[in-house]
Amino acid sequence: MPDIGRIIQLKLADFEYLWTNAQLAGHVPPISGVGPNNSWLNYGGSKLWPAPQGWGRDDYWPGPPDPVLDGSPHTGSILEQNGESAVQLVSQKDKRSGVQFTRKIKIYENVTRVSIDCRMENIDTRARRWGIWQVTQHNTAKRDSPGFDKNTRVYCPINPNSIYPNGYKVIYGRSDNPEYSIENGMVCVQYLHLVGKIGMDCSAGWYAVVNRTSGHVFVERFNWIPETEYPDGASFEAWTQGAGTIQAYGREVEMSERVEENPYVLETEVLSPFAQLQPGASSCYHSDWYVTRVQANLSVIRCNNLGVTCEPLRANLSGDKLTIRGGHFGIFSRGEVALAFADARGEKISVGESRAPISPTKPLGLDELRNLADRTTILSQADQLSLVLLDDSGASIGCLGATKITK
Asked: Residue 351 has what pLDDT?
């Protein structure tokens, strides 16, 4: 939506992932770019801001609200090249921060990938130093009744060399916020409508937001650049909108008890390293969104560009009988899946002749994998098993999961 400078909707079938502000739907910002009494017009969706956020210094961004980068219309255009299409949003030039943002957004056939290329240009006459900050707001309300859905989770892998003792730091809110926990090397944020924010020096370059009630999953994959300085010392941050008190805007802020003013919202935020920009210079940052569906009440433990893993693949072989003992996945693309086998040296033996259709709207679970194994011929020298994804033409697009076969 160029008029409000945001990506405002992302759906898989009928499931809407992003939060939008119903009170502002159908309205564009006033010329001032802010609401009454200089209030923030929080439309929802996903937007770009400069980082770090802060108050009282010229090299901190004091928004939101921000009348230019956040509150003014962007220029929208359609880009077409080599048969592919994308849309582009260009912000107005902000004298306060000295930057202008451009975001190129592209979608692809047969895969739930949204490619986002962000560009920050110094339009000032002096050097500027900022990070690119992409903020995405997720809907955490129950879909069929009033209230918030406490089954909403964020999962992000802990950096094994994290500078933070727990793998994360608390930026806003209580240090003992019960929304935060650590599970199997992952930081887990459970939405409980309590205000807070954490930052992580995530080196894995991905996080997942999981609606464990419906099984819908949102993933963002981003670039981690080691040995660079990040705003807030974090490449990923998670904000939970809710009750409580925070220190912000140079004062103590008590969050409203009214849902209309304090809605059920979870923010996920990816940040680029600081860029030292001379006048006219620019910096770029790339991320990809993916969506899929898994069975309800599952966690995401791994991710690649093909899908997410909720339970790792496990299998055993007795004679010529292959039994799948574990495995649950969410797929990002449409196509087929087959079982592939390798020997003890890792040399490929065969790809199973039986295949099964896959789709982002359909979880790939134990029942589907067992049915596939029952229709697959097993060679005695098979030592390793992997799940190979195939496109509509039957060509392999990669491996989703693998395991050593127990005998």
From this structure: 83
How far is Cα 370 from Cα 307, in angstroms, rounded to an integer? Answer: 19
Confidence of residue 354 (pLDDT cuts 50, 70, 90): confident
Q: How many CA atoms lie within 13 A of 228 on its CB side?
A: 18
pTM for this model (two decimals): 0.97
The C-alpha atoms of residue 370 and residue 376 are separated, in whole angstroms, by 10
CB atoms within 10 A of CB 12: 17
Residue tagged 């499931």 (tokens)? 15
Lowest-pLDDT range of 16-30, 100-114, 181-195, 339-353: 339-353
Q: Among all chains, which residue has been given the structure tokens 């996080």?
A: 207
Domains of the chain (ranges, CATH numbers)? 2-293 (2.70.98.10), 304-404 (2.60.40)
- pLDDT value at 318 more than 90: no
Measured CA to CA, the distance from residue 114 to residue 101 in angstroms comes to: 18
- Distance separating alpha carbons of residues 90 and 121, to the nearest angstrom: 11
Q: 361, 303 in Cβ contact below 8 A? A: no
36: cis peptide before it, omega within 30°?
no
| Pairwise CA distance, residues 373 & 378, whole Å | 9
Q: Are strands 265-271 and 128-139 parallel, antiparallel or unpaired?
A: antiparallel
